[in-house]
Each structure stands twice: as C-alpha cells, then as structure tokens.
Design a protein that fits this description.
single chain; Transferase(Phosphotransferase), domain 1; about 1250 residues; about 45% helix; about 15% strand; alpha+beta
C-alpha cells in the first residue's frame, strides 16, 4: 500500500501502516490527557506492539462480528461547592436547593469519564483517519483570518479540529504525522477573538445594538446516542465507499458499560436526568470522541451557517456564530428594545429548535446561556482573554528578574479580576450593569496556576538568596528604587509568595473538588509534608470503613487518584534544586504519600475502585516497591500486571516465563530504573533466549545487558547478531565492515560529515545491484576498503555489499511491508545513513543524553518500539545528537525522502528521486560536486551552506535588522579564577548565578532598546539577528533564555558559549552557537541549532594548557547560514557566517569565505581592541562584505563596517569605552544590492567602494 490519501474502505483501515499511525496518535493522546488510563496496559502494549497490531488487524477483518469491549466508568467531579464542616471537621458537599419544594440535598455532581480498551481506542482512531479529509473539508479551514467574511461563512467549528493541510480548498489530514488534533490554544484563541472582531465591525452600523451571547450544550457527549452518530456517519457515505467500513464503524462506536458499573451508571443517569445512558457513542476518554462530536454537529453547524444575516425574531439579526465543541458564541444585532434576559431566552429557544431539527436528543443549557452588551454599559464584556494572551507572550519570550516579577503580578491580577467578575457572582447578581468575562472561571484559574508555576521556577534561580539588611532597608523605602535596582524580591520572599499562592490553589480545590488540577499544581509548587497531610486528612474518611458513601466518596476517590498519579510523575520533580522552595523536604512528602499508598493497597480489592488501586501500585512501583503489599492483591485482573511488575522490581521474577520476563525487563529499564539498576535486576535471570526476546523489543537494552554478560553474545541468533552489529573484527581482505568503521571510531568519526555521507551513498547505490535480491542489508553486510580511515571516504575507496544468508524476519533493517520491491533500495540506503549519523546500533532512536529522571523516583513513559519508530523516523539534524554535526539541511531532506512513509507531505526532493536509483545518483553527485568546489582551498575547512526559511511564514521582502549586545560577564578575571579551581566551564553556583542574571538583564535590555529603535527606524518592532560575544552564554542557558527569545522575536541568534566538554575525557572546546527559528506549513515554528567551532586558540587560552591540556582547538566545519529575505523563491539568500575571535585572524579562512559569505560576524573576548578595529577595517574591504565584531564589554570596541564608497558611511557603529555593557543596532536594506555588490560595484556612480583585486 502506498496511498497517501485514505478513504472509507475496510482494507485500507486494516493496513499495517494505518494501524501503526492510529496507535501512535492514540497512545500519545492518552498519555497526555487520560491520566486514569491503565498505564501498564499502555506500556506493555507499546513494548509488544507488533503482536498487538497483528491481532487487531485480524479482528477488523470481520466487521459484522466486531463487538466493542465494555467501558469502565471513572466518575469525576463537576463544579460544585464543598466545605470543611466547622463542627465535624469533615470535608463535605454544601447542600443546595434544587427541587420546587426547596428541600436540601448534597450538591455532588459527577462527570462520567470512560476507560475504553486499547483495541477499541486504536480502531476508532483508524476509522476517524479514514474519513478525516471528508469531515474536515466540510467544516472549513480554522486557520483562516477571522477578519475575513468569506472565512467566517465557511468555518463555524473550532474545537477538536484535526491537523490538516489545505490543498485547493480541501483539507487533508496528515495521517502519517504524529499530530492528531490541532493545538488547543491556537483555535481556542480564534474562537474567543472572533465574536469581538465581528462585534467591532458591525458596531459601526448606525442603529445597531450589539449583543454577544455565550451558550452551551447540556451534557453533550452523554446525550449523543449511537443511532444518532450512525445516521450522521451514513450521511457522509458516497457511492464508491466500502459498506463494510460503515458496518464496522457503527458496531465499534456503540459501547455498553461493564456490568460491574451498573450501579454507577444508574446513579449518574438519575443525577443527569438522561432517559437512557446504557449505551454511548462518544465516551469521555475516547481519543476520537472530539472528532466524532463534530460529525454529530455537522448539520447543526450548517443550520447555524444559514442563519447568519437572518432574523431569528423581528429586530434580532444573527451577525455571526461560532462553536468550540459544545461551547457557542453568537453575535446579534438588535434594533428592538429587548432586555438581556429576553435575548437569552430567545437565543435558547432558537438554538433548541435547530437542535431538534438537526441533532435530535441534544439540549441547550438555558442556565449557561448568557448575553452581554458589546461596548455598552449594561452588563459589559470583560476581555480576560487579551490579558491571558499578553501574559503568555511575556512568558514565552523569556525574562529577567524584574520581568518575572511583573509576570507574577499580572497572573495574580488576572485571578483577582476574574474573581471580581466571577460567573458565580453574576448568577446571584440582579444589577443590570454587572460585567461578565469572555472566559470561564475554570479556564482562567488553570491558566493562571500553570503560568505562575512555570514563571516561579524560572524566576527563582535568578534571585539572590537574601539581601543584606542595610541594603534592604534602603531599597524597600523606595519601591521605584527597588524596581530599578532589580532586588525587589529575594528567593525567600518569592518562596513566601509561592506558598501563599499554592495554598490558595489548594483552598480552591477544597471549595470545589472539580479544581483537582489546581490541587496538583499547588502540591507541586509547595510539596510540604504538612500540606499533604492536611489533604490526606480530608480524603481519608472516604476510604475507611463506615466513612462517607455515594457520590461524595467517588469525588474523593478521583482526587486521591490524581494526587497519587501526580506523586509518581510530576510533584517536586525538577532537574536541579534551585527551582524548589528552600526548606521543603521532598523526601518526607514522598514518604508520607508512600505510606498512604501502602494503606490503600492493603485494603480489600472491593473497597476501592480499580483506577485508584492502579495509581497506588504505580506510585509504589516508582517509590521503593519493597513496601508494596502485593500478597493481598488476589486475582484482580485490573491490578495483576502491577503486582507482577512490583515483584519483578523487588527481584522476585525467577518464576516469570520468557515473554513476560522480557516485557517486564524492558518496562523496568525504560519506565522505572536507571541503567545499572535495571541490569542488576536481570543479570542473573537472563538467558540467551530471554536476551533474544529483550533484543526484539528493545535492542539498546539488550546491548547494555551484553556489556555486563558478554558470555551471552555467542548464543544469540544470527539475525539479532547482525542487527546489533556484534560481529566486529579487526578487518578482512574485503575491507572493514561499515559497522566496524562507525562503532569503533570517534564521535566525530570519519564518515559523520556531509561529504563522506554523500560519497558513501553514491558508492553504495553503484554497488547495490550485486545484492538487489536481498531484503535486508545491515552494516555488517557492507564492506569498505579505505586507504586512510582517519581522513574519511575518498574517491579511490570502494564499497561493496555482501549477500546475506540470514533470514530477514524481525530485522530492524527490513523495508516495511507496504514498500514495493523496486523501492526497497530507498529504505536500505536510508537505514544505513541513519546508522552512520547516529553512530548507534539502534539507528531508529533519537540520540540524546540520558535523562536526569533515570535516577529519580519517578515513572517515565515507556519508549516506543523500534517497529513503531520506523513509521515515523525523525531525520532532522537534532535526531543525531550532536549540534556540531557537519551535515546541512540537504541531507535532512534526503533522509526524509528516502524514508518517507504514506500519509506524509510530499517534498520537492521526493519528486526528484521518484526516477529511481539513477536519478538519485545524479542528485547526490551534483551535491557532492558543489561541496567539493566549496571546500576551503586555503584553510581546508568544509564550508557548509544551511538554508533557513522565513520564521514568520510571510512572503514579502524584508530587510535585516541586527543587534549586537556587548555583555561584560564573564570577564577575563572570571575565566582565570574559574581555571584556578578547575571550573573553566563556569558551572560553579556563584558565577552561574551572576552570569545567568547578566544574560537575563541583557535580553531584557534589548526589548527596551527595540522600542527606542522603533521610534526612529521603524520595522514593526522586528529583530532578525542577535549577536553576543565569545563565552557570553552558558550552554545550560541556551534552552531557558536564548531559545525562548529567538522564538518570541523570530530572530536568528549567534552567541559565544562558555568552554564545554563535548567529548568525554577530552579537553574542553570554545565555540559559538547559531539558533535559527524557521517556519513551514509542514512543521510550524521550529528552532534549529548549529554549533560553530573555534580552531585556533588565543594566547591566553594556550596559557591555560599548562601544566595540562584543558582546552583544544576544534572546528568540524564552517557554517554559512542563509537568511531568507525575498518574496521571490528564485532569489538567493543573504549568507551569514561567523568565526570565534582568534579564528577571524586566519587569512586563509577569510580567503575561502570571501566568495561565499555576505556578512562576517566575529564573537570576541579580545583586549587588543585597536588591532581588531584595524582587522575589521581591512577584512570588510578585502572580503568585500559586512564585518561585525561583538566584543566583550570589559574591553569594548564592538563595531560593524561595510564597503561603502564614502568613508563616513562605512562604519555602521562603534561602541567605545570599557567596561561597558551596551546594545547597538544596524540594518541591512536593499539586500538584493548587497548580494550583487561584486557586480554593482563595477558600475559607474556605484555607492560601493571599488572591489579588491581577484574578487571575481
């Protein structure tokens, strides 16, 4: 199967490639959204994925016999008022008046979350994928501009929309992508902004009073019956569709509840006032429910669409309407004198009539239908969504200490204003002018809690531990001075504020248990033992004999489950201690929670629901499983695997049979243990057959075991031996194997660069006909004869492919089943190239350092199976681990093309390689020839061009605005001091804090200076390129500071990094980093990183190498970064390049670059400012291009020159004085003239200086 477009056909749905993608989407969604899912079922299935999908495909072959597994209910609290009884001290619901007789009854309301089996989940996702294009096209593209009337006429629905491409008006779900639904915040913001946008437009019409109505569908998911969904699906059918597909869909999307939950279902049916809830079509927990919810409402949306511009009553015109799942926003133009309650009643009646006609059985929530005047005094609309957007923008761009405090103040102000205008207050407020907000209370609370936590954890390391008493008195006497001094808070003061905020979140949960997410964030912010004890004291009466029963107990069960789950996955888990409040004993917190988990696990199985017991066992597995009471677990199938896992983690797995042993071994390694602990667990029990089974599931873990038990290597099967490259030897007459060259080489080995990769690919393709019949070609089967392995592959070296006699079954290197025989070469070559670039036996994995979580007492989601990874290999530069790796985006595109799977977006290179082996050979040799010509003839360095795309997604021509920041920290004395204590990487806590704060303040200063620059050099506040000096940034601050700044401003960043050990046991290197935000329709906004090495050590660095070498020169390539500036695709980019300080004095490098670059940037820490001034003056002419020096502010002298004809125009800026932290800007306009300067400079009256000799 090679279809890129799916349709409603059963055979398509059953294809392996479709089911693999359905699994990926399902598993990812469940892990992120459904905490109550059976975690170990998900993990065990991921480990044994091929078997699971094979069995599912067989079941799907007989749609008429399909029967979905019964659902298990997980009752979750809905919004309700609870309190701690002042007399009994018990936590209980507050009675509410509901009946006509005003009698009181507890106000406990529940939401029936549902746990569906994994086979049902994956099958439903696959059904969704097959009709996704049809349904999404009917709903219109939600990415259109809400200011466009045509777009608004097409799009009503914004919620639960799938990730799609727009192809000529048709929406095509990219089903081969790992993404399923579009990002919530994007579409929800459009949904919130749209009514206000329309209201502003129509408010200009004289005589119109504009009303915005909020409404909601009552218990929407629970009221959709299977027969209603079946009718809507049938309406989508076309003549050529497969009827068996719809038979399967109708049987699949028709669930009943497990008989164990009959009582729960009966109670909920009475509470909700639903006639029949015995069978459901849209379980709240089904991954595809959001999509099928939109299917149910397609006709309703069309009815809404047809009503726009129509009167629903004389004098009341619908101006616009949009929907986010069951939430509605309506803009009405009213000319008659009607009160807001009249409008609410009228809107409810109109919507209900439409529902009765188009989706019978669904109901409008009259009590949630609220009307507000737009721009009027009566019940005005408070636009909280705009405040939320501003807060998010401030956070996403990074901040300094003062900026972080401003964000915290804004977050707390947002909460206070929402409480002031709370919907609960409005409900009891009869005053006609009471304002209403455009966002629900719960949405604001969750947003504010999450943003406070993230800001607090980023801000705390920036603050001082304490302030000296005399300073604090002086500063606090004047708040303005405090703000300017940047010491308004200390860490302890921030901790006090975090404690108050956290306790406030927990109190919100106490008052309304549906706020359980606030409880989790509160405990994560302040994980104090005493606070946890108070929470457990409230919950414990619901889990003891004779305690509360009925709905309140189910609320407590749900909350306790979330506390345990969070304890295993999030509470108090941070990489370093700095983001945690001082004085918090996280071990005491976990010990107390472990005691509670033990108590719950010891209760009889019937005393607790299955999901609570699972979470208790999961917590115990992650936190000292020796305490877990697994003996009393009985034969309960819902906790069986948890008990087996805990026994295995206690090294009690002797009697476990082979398949289960290997599954538990992999699960222990990937989800609960670090490397050494996991090996210790399996060392004695592992046999050759067990190792084989582990290798089939997790090749990397099998290799780790073999390092400890090398005696097992001889007994593994030839298939596993070849896949894991276990037959390494010193070479043979036919040459060395590819496995030997790659695995026995150094990390920057001879083949791990673009020229070597191209040469290998070319030679392999020419040798391929010799092994054309082989299905599998491993690195062991490829032989290379090299004259000098240290210099890489030359034109004279040879590559041959030996025929394999090993069965291909079960090999990682076997092309996928859907791949035609004449296309297998693409995967054979692609797999081998990934092996070279990853330098790992398991080439399917992304190369990354071990996570700090491996040594923490936390649960980690199990890694995906290599079988799954083959259907979604990420081939970007970062997949191969090293940011310095000298391969360009061309190699990335080649790999994406070779290893492309169905359902992915087709690239230009795909089209170019469709011609087969010969067409690809020609393409590779053309690229190789280009790079050979660019190879530095003078310096010998490999010049690598790297094209970046526009980060804003726009197509208009743009100039380049650059900013040079002359930071001061670290100074030369900082370097000398650090070297004396063997901390040349500047990682000691004191200098780290000073350095980080200095960088934060510098980035904040750029924000302010941009505002100033904009007043006289307007460019819409844009920044395109930021340049920082040598050693200006610690590598740990790249992710936390530079990348957020680059993403916010869509700016390229070039920054010198502090000394860093890139290769274990070798001297440190001095380097700079390129950070490049790019945007594409396929991937959205991405941040790409490349490292520029420094080859020549300066005199001061050479002195550091006495008595031992601590710094080495190292430069694997010279990057040329293409700045995309033109609206015309054919125009070449503006080429930017950089050399770190002393490298810029290498005239050989300058000679090589002068024909290829347009701007030469030099991050420096150089005390000889005069010499570098003269160098910039000389280079900008001899290279005939822009030359920019960003020097450390300790010495100053940062400058920029360009070869303009008039002398006074050549210097763009020069920063004098020292020590001086400064910011300077320059713009490059008319980039087309800059690129063509070598020719234009020869023209009469040219503004350019006459070019130097030999430039052409």
């Amino acid at each position: 199967m090679t279809n890129d477009v799916l349709g409603p056909h059963l055979e398509l749905l059953r294809e392996e490639v479709v089911l693999v993608q359905a699994w990926k989407k399902t598993a990812s969604y469940i892990r992120y959204h459904n905490w109550f899912s059976d975690t170990l079922e998900l993990d065990r299935t991921a480990i044994n994925l091929p078997r699971f999908l094979g069995e599912l495909a067989e079941r799907l072959a007989a749609p008429e016999r399909w029967c979905s597994d019964p659902l298990r209910i997980v009752p979750a609290p809905k919004s309700q008022h609870w309190q701690v009884n002042s007399i009994s001290k018990r936590w209980e619901p507050v009675p509410v008046r509901r009946t006509p007789q005003d009698t009181k009854r507890p106000g406990t309301t529940l939401r029936p979350l549902a746990h569906a089996s994994l086979s049902d989940q994956v099958a439903a996702t696959a059904v969704m994928m097959c009709i996704a294009d049809r349904v999404e096209t009917l709903q219109g593209d939600p990415r259109g501009q809400i200011t466009d009337t045509v777009v608004r006429n097409q799009v009503i629905s914004y919620g639960n929309r799938l990730f799609c491409d727009n192809a000529g008006g048709s929406l095509l779900h990219r089903w081969g992508s790992g993404k399923l639904y579009r990002a919530h915040y994007q579409d929800y913001r459009s949904f919130l902004a749209r009514p206000e946008t329309v209201a502003e437009e129509v408010s200009r019409d004289a005589g119109n009073r504009i009303i915005i109505v909020h409404s909601d569908l009552r218990q929407f998911y629970d009221r959709v019956r299977p027969d209603l969904l079946a009718r809507k699906l049938s309406a989508l059918a076309r003549p050529n569709d497969d009827p068996n597909f719809y038979i399967l869909a109708n049987r699949l999307l028709n669930w009943e509840w497990a008989s164990k939950d009959d009582r729960e279902i009966a109670d909920y049916t009475r509470q909700a006032g639903i006639d029949d809830f015995s069978r459901v079509a849209l379980p709240q927990g089904l991954v595809a429910s959001g999509f099928f919810a939109n299917v149910v409402l397609l006709d309703f949306d069309q009815g809404l669409r047809e009503t726009v511009s129509q009167e629903i009553e004389p004098g009341v015109v619908v101006k616009d309407v949009c929907r986010y799942v069951d939430d509605l926003r309506i803009v009405l133009g009213v000319t008659e004198k009607k009160t807001l309650p009249d409008i609410e009643q009228l809107s409810t009646k109109w919507l209900q009539e439409l529902l009765d006609e188009q989706a019978h059985g669904l109901q409008v929530s009259a009590e949630k239908t609220r009307a507000a005047n737009f721009g009027g005094d009566e019940r005005p609309l408070v636009r909280q969504s705009r405040k939320m957007a501003r807060i998010q923008g401030a956070i996403s761009g990074g901040f300094d200490a003062i900026g972080g405090e401003d964000i915290l103040n804004a977050v707390q102000g947002l909460i206070q204003s929402q409480q002031r205008y709370s919907a609960q207050r409005i409900d009891g407020q009869s005053w006609a002018f009471a304002p209403v907000t455009d966002v629900l209370d719960a949405t604001v609370e969750r947003f504010a809690a999450a943003r406070f936590r993230s800001t607090y954890r980023s801000l705390r390391p920036l603050l001082a531990d304490r302030v000296e008493p005399d300073t604090s008195v002086e500063v606090y006497a004047n708040e303005d001075a405090a703000s300017r001094a940047g010491v308004a808070r200390t860490q302890s003061e921030l901790d006090d504020e975090a404690r108050s905020f956290a306790l406030g979140l927990i109190e919100s949960w106490v008052e309304d248990p549906s706020n359980v997410r606030l409880l989790r964030i509160g405990l994560d912010l302040w994980p104090a033992e005493v606070v946890l004890q108070s929470v457990l004291d409230l919950l414990r009466p619901f889990t003891v004999k004779g305690g509360h029963r009925g709905a309140p107990r189910r609320v407590a069960w749900y909350c306790l489950s979330e506390v345990l789950r969070a304890g295993a996955t999030e509470t108090g888990f941070v990489e370093t201690g700095e983001p945690m409040p001082k004085g918090i004993d996280i071990d005491a917190y976990r010990k107390l929670l472990r005691q509670e988990a033990v108590r719950l696990a010891e209760l009889p199985p019937a005393a607790l629901p299955w999901y609570l017991r699972q979470q208790a066992f999961l917590y115990l597995a992650a936190n000292d499983p020796k305490d877990a009471p697994v003996q009393r677990g009985g034969t309960n199938p819902e906790t069986k695997h948890y008990r087996e896992l805990i026994r295995f983690l206690r090294n009690e797995g002797d009697r476990i049979k082979g398949g289960d042993f290997s599954t538990l071994a992999v699960l222990a390694r990937r989800s609960f243990c670090g490397r050494e602990t996991a090996i210790e667990l399996v060392r004695d029990g592992v046999t050759s057959s067990r190792l084989e089974q582990i290798g089939e599931r997790d090749p990397s873990f099998a290799l780790e075991i073999l390092e400890s038990r090398p005696d097992l290597a001889a007994s593994v099967t030839p298939r596993l031996r070849d896949d894991l490259c276990l037959r390494l030897r010193a070479g043979a007459e036919s040459g060395m194997s590819l496995a030997e060259i790659v695995l026995q080489g150094t990390p920057n080995g001879s083949l791990r660069n673009e020229l070597a990769v191209l040469r290998f690919a070319s030679k392999f393709l020419k040798a391929l006909p010799e092994a054309a019949m082989d299905d599998v070609i491993t690195p062991e089967d490829v032989r290379i004869r090299v004259q000098d392995s240290a210099k890489g592959l030359s034109e004279k070296d040879t590559v041959s492919v030996a025929s394999s006699r090993v069965t291909p079954a079960g090999s990682m290197y076997r092309p996928p089943r859907w791949c035609p025989a004449d296309k297998r070469w693409r995967f054979q070559l692609g797999y081998l190239l990934r092996f070279i670039l990853t330098a790992r036996q398991d080439f399917t994995k992304i190369v990354r350092p071990p996570s700090w979580k491996e040594t923490a007492t936390t649960y980690r989601a199990a890694e995906s199976h290599w079988y799954q990874r083959l259907y979604g290999l990420f081939n970007g530069h970062s997949a191969f681990g090293d940011d310095w790796l000298p391969i360009s985006d061309w190699i990335e595109q080649l790999l994406f093309s070779l290893l492309r799977w169905p359902g992915c977006q087709i690239s230009e290179m795909d089209r170019q390689t469709e011609g087969g082996v010969l067409a690809l050979l020609a393409l590779i040799e053309e690229r190789q020839s280009k790079l050979d010509r660019m190879q530095g003839g003078s310096s010998g360095v490999l010049l690598l061009p790297f094209n970046t795309s526009r980060p804003d997604g726009k197509k208009k021509t743009r100039p380049l605005r650059a900013c040079v920041v002359q930071t001061v920290t670290p100074t030369s004395s900082d370097i000398i001091t650090a070297a004396a204590v063997d901390d040349l990487s500047l990682s000691e806590r004191g200098i780290r804090k000073t350095h980080r704060n200095h960088l934060s303040a510098a980035l904040a200063a750029i924000e302010r200076m941009l505002d100033l620059r904009e007043t006289h050099m307007g460019l819409d506040g844009r920044l395109d390129w930021l340049i920082l000096p040598e050693l200006a940034v610690h590598p740990l601050d790249v992710k936390t500071h530079l990348i957020p700044f680059a993403r916010k401003h869509r700016a390229i960043i070039l920054a010198g990094l502090t000394y860093q050990e890139l290769f274990a046991g070798q001297p440190l290197v001095n380097s700079a980093i390129w950070i490049m935000p790019t945007w594409s329709a396929a991937h959205g906004l991405q941040t790409l990183i490349r490292r520029q090495g420094k080859h020549h050590l300066a005199a001061g660095e050479t002195k550091l190498n006495n008595p031992k070498v601590v710094v080495q020169g190292w430069r694997p390539c010279q990057w040329l970064v293409g700045y995309d500036w033109s609206s015309m695709l054919a125009d070449p980019p503006l080429w930017l390049t950089a050399a770190v300080c002393y490298d810029a004095t290498d005239l050989a490098l300058a000679a090589d670059l002068r024909h290829h670059s347009d701007v030469f940037a030099i991050p420096a820490l150089n005390r000889d400012v005069g010499t570098f001034d003269q160098m910039a003056l000389a280079l900008h002419y001899h290279m005939f291009q822009y030359v920019v020096i960003a020097n450390n502010g300790e010495y100053g002298g940062s400058n920029a020159y360009h070869p303009w004809g008039k002398e006074y125009q050549r210097q763009m800026f020069h920063l004098h004085g020292q020590p001086q932290a400064s910011v300077a800007f320059f713009e490059i306009n008319n980039i087309d003239h800059v690129i063509a300067r070598r020719i234009k400079a020869l023209a009469p009256e040219s503004p350019w200086k006459s070019p130097p000799a030999g430039l052409g």
